[in-house]
Amino acid sequence: MSDEVRCVVDAHAGIGESPAWDEHHHLLYWVDIPAKALHRFDPHTGNDAVWELPSEPGAVALRAAGGVALAMRDGFYGFDFMNPVPHLLAKLEGEPSTNRLNDGRADVAGRFWSGTVNEAAREPTGALYCLGTDRKISKKIAGIAVSNSLCWSPDAKTMYHADSFTWKIQAWDFDAATGEIANPRVFVEIPRDRGFSDGATIDAEGCLWAAHWGQGEVKRYDPTGALMRIVQLPVTNLTCPCFGGPDLTTLYVTSATFRLTDAQRAEQPQAGGLFAIETEVKGLPENRFRG
Prior knowledge:
single chain; mainly beta; Neuraminidase; four-stranded antiparallel beta sheet; 1 helix; 25 strands
C-alpha cells in the first residue's frame, strides 16, 4: 500500500460522513451533517458539487431506482438529482427529539440500515433501524448511544456494528434473506486512549477498515479481529472510509472539524476534508437500496 494520503476535497466539513462510491458513474457521494449538505465528488474533474438539505443527513446510499436515499434526522428520504428535493420514504417514530439518524448503508438484499445518535448526551436512547424494500421500518438493536461502523462481510453472513461509546465493534450473524441478526459478539475491543470506532467498510478479502475518531488512524482488521495495518492521516477526527476508484482500490475517508479548538484547527488545516489513499487491495461495490 502507498503511504501517500491526499486531501482531494478541502471541504472543512463540520462532520463529513458516509462516503459511497457509485461504480457505474465513477462518482463519490458523501454528506456534511451539521451543514445539512449532500456532496458529489468527481475524481476525474476534481469537482465537488453540493446540495443543501432541509435537515441533517446521517448517511447516503445509492438507489437502484436512480438518485440516492438519505437517512436524515427524522426518517428515510429519496433524492432525485433531476428534482433535488428530498421526498419522504418512511418516517421514524418514537425517537427522542435529541436523536437523529447517523451512519448507515444498504445491505446485499437492498435494505437501507441506519442507527440513531443521541446528540445531547452519551445516553443509550438510540437504536439501529432497517428500512425494507417495502419501505417499512423495523428496529433491530435498542439501547445505543452512537450507532456506527455498519458493514457486512463479503459473503453477507456477518454484520458489523458499533455503539461507539462502548469502544467495541461487534459482529452479528446475518441472514440476508430475512434481514435478521443474532449471536452478537465482540469483534474488536479498542483501547480508550486510541479513539473510538466511527465508520467502517469491508474489503474483498473480508478485512474491516475502521476510521478511529480522535486519533487520525484508519485501522485494518482481519476477519478474526486481529490488527493488520494502521494508516495515519493528518487530521484527528476521522469519520468513515469506503473503497472507490475505477478498480475499487482507492480508500476514501471523510473527516470532521467538529469539536476541534481553534488551536487544533490551526495545527490540522485540512480537517473536515475528504481524503484518498491508494491501496493494494480491492473493496466491494456498494449495495443499492431497492425501495
